[in-house]
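Exercise: predict the fold of this chain.
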Amino acid sequence: MKKSQASMELMLFVGIGLIILIIYFTFFFTQTTNYNLEKEKRLGQDILEKVKTEIELAEEVNNGYSRTFILPPTLNGISYNITIQNKELLIDTPNFNFIELIPEVTGNIQKNQNIIKKEENVIYLN
């Protein structure tokens, strides 16, 4: 009688332990996923603000302005696309799309090195 009771108690404790492990790993996975999404969102917004600031600065200064700025090839390992269409700056990541209105720009933006100039009140990129 005691051996069967001990076996049942052991099975009960092992079962409770497995349930606790499953709950822990589910919570850990959810937290990791949320952290990675927040990181992707923050990095995308940072690039968006950096480019917008560069373009707005070029708009405010006098003709003859020229500056080089660099955009990373990835956002800490996360791929992204960056384009300018009409007066919109667009950044696409796997989980987010960022759009910001900007002054009119002639040219295209690219990852890595970009040259921004202002000549005859027109902003040129690359």
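Check your answer against the key: The longest strand covers residues 112-119.
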